[in-house]
Amino acid sequence: MVRASARQHILDVASESFYREGIRSVGIDTIVERAGVSKATLYRHFPTKDDLVMAYLQEQDHINWEHFDEVIAKKEGKPKEQLLALIDATIEMLEPGYHRGCHFLNALAEFSEEDHPVHLLAVEYNRAIRQRLSRLTQLAGVNDDTLTDQLMLVINGALSSVSVYGFSGPAAQLKTLATHLIELYLDRRNQ
Question: Rounded to two decimals, what is the model's pTM?
Answer without folding.
Answer: 0.89
